[in-house]
Write a structure and sequence with these properties.
alpha/beta, TIM Barrel, oxidoreductase, oxidoreductase activity, Putative oxidoreductase, NAD(P)_OxRdtase_dom_sf, AKR
């Protein structure tokens, strides 16, 4: 049975793993990271995640200028899921915009979501807006007060910026629900930059994006290095795909594979199980999926429980990467 987690200090309960929907963008800059998926494939992915127990989906305006939002909700509708049966989070794109744009574009976001409410609305980046973070968060608070959204979150915010956002929201009788940041066995910056400590102190949920480090933690590139040539250039660069990286991370991947074999699982599931356990209730994860098989595997990781010895071995090998 899947144990639900509370989103920040809200009343919203979510599964430890959600589905990241960046791959559903279909157009724009995201296609430099992932190949476009047709709607039938997207529908199969969403169905697999939902059948696996996943109850929330994370998308963004920036993912194809609303294409991901529409593709997600079309897929949910096609499998008989109605508004309110699952949780949907999306994000406002701040680049080149003022805080006033948050209120002006909220109806466009709701239209793209085709009747599904915004359970969590996030500021996608702390940089790039023509307005201060203070003004942006105030605009988000106004949406929450007006009942347009259920909770306010941020993405890629530093510890100091989280503190500021929560302070502003408290002045409106609200609290910061979440901060979406990169976290994985190969990316543990939250432990050293104050984000994890601040999140725990404020009661903020950290949403881990790229929890499999763009696929490196699946082990498939270690098993078949030539697959790296199939990864799109920007993703390959940001993910650190190289022969040197494969050599350096091999001991960690070998351990993931050994543990997975003992459970009849795959390395990606072990990596996700470690993430959810190591950081306890504070961290949830949103692995993406380009196929139903990947979505099913991610959802099944919620039922994989590692021993203390296994967790410690992975912790040690992971720490050696940093």
């Amino acid at each position: 049975m899947i144990t639900m987690r509370r989103l920040g200090s809200t009343d919203l309960e979510i599964t430890p793993i959600g589905l990241g929907c960046m791959q559903f963008a279909g157009q724009g800059i995201v296609t430099q990271f992932y190949r476009p998926l047709d709607q039938d494939t997207i529908g199969s992915i969403v169905r697999a995640a939902h059948q696996g127990g996943v109850n929330w989906f994370d998308t963004a305006e920036m993912y194809g200028r609303g294409h991901s939002e529409r593709a997600l909700t079309s897929a949910l509708t096609s499998i008989g899921v109605t508004p309110g049966q699952v949780r949907v989070s999306t994000k406002w794109a701040p680049l080149g915009r003022t805080a006033a744009n948050i209120g002006r574009t909220i109806d466009a976001r709701l239209t793209a979501l085709q009747g599904f409410p915004i359970d969590l609305y996030q500021i996608h980046e702390p940089h790039g807006s023509l307005s201060s973070i203070t003004r942006q968060v105030r605009a988000m608070a106004e949406l929450r007060t007006a009942g347009k959204i259920a909770a306010v979150g941020v993405s890629n915010f530093s510890a100091r910026q989280m503190e500021l956002a929560d302070e502003i929201l408290r002045a409106h009788g609200l609290r910061l629900a979440s901060n979406q940041v990169q976290i994985s066995l190969l990316h543990r910056a939250i432990e050293h930059n104050g984000v994890l400590e601040t999140a725990r102190r404020l009661g903020v949920t950290l949403i881990a994006f790229s929890p499999l480090r763009s696929g490196l933690l699946t082990g498939k590139f270690h098993a078949t290095p030539e697959l790296m040539r199939t990864v799109r250039p920007i993703r390959r660069t940001l993910g650190g795909f190289s022969a040197r990286t494969l050599t350096r991370t091999a001991p960690l991947i070998d351990e993931l594979r050994a543990i997975a074999d003992a459970y009849g699982a795959v390395p990606a599931q072990v990596a996700l199980a470690w993430l959810l356990t190591h950081y306890s209730e504070t961290v949830v994860a949103i692995p993406g999926a380009s196929s139903p098989t990947q979505a099913t595997a991610s959802s099944e990781a919620m039922n994989l429980h590692l021993t203390d010895a296994e967790l410690d071995r992975l912790d040690t090998l992971s720490a050696a990467q940093h």
